Here is the input.
Amino acid sequence: MEMGLELGIVDPIRIIQIISVNLFSCTGFGKLEIVEISARPPKAILRVYDSLECELGLEDGKSYGQLIRGIIAGFLTVFFDRRMKAEEIKCIAKSDPYCEFTVGPE
Here is the structure.
């Protein structure tokens, strides 16, 4: 939020689209794509391509993105000022082409 304000961006959705997506990728977790995001009601659908975490579980056949799920829920909790919960509905560890997370109020 502070970085957005320094750049003159005050809308939380724009901060997520412009700053958070790039920061996520720069950390090496994977490439984050916003499929859908809304402040009212607070919800999101996010995809992660080339998930560093889930590549470790390619043999498991089940959702593997615990850390990334927590990161997503945490940063959206801050932006929406409301406790959010993320659920991984697609995962490369289950042979899906990407990991997909739905996020909504807890």
Observations:
- DSSP finds four helices and four strands in the chain.
- Residues 2-104 form a domain with the Muramoyl-pentapeptide Carboxypeptidase; domain 2 fold (CATH 3.30.1380.20).
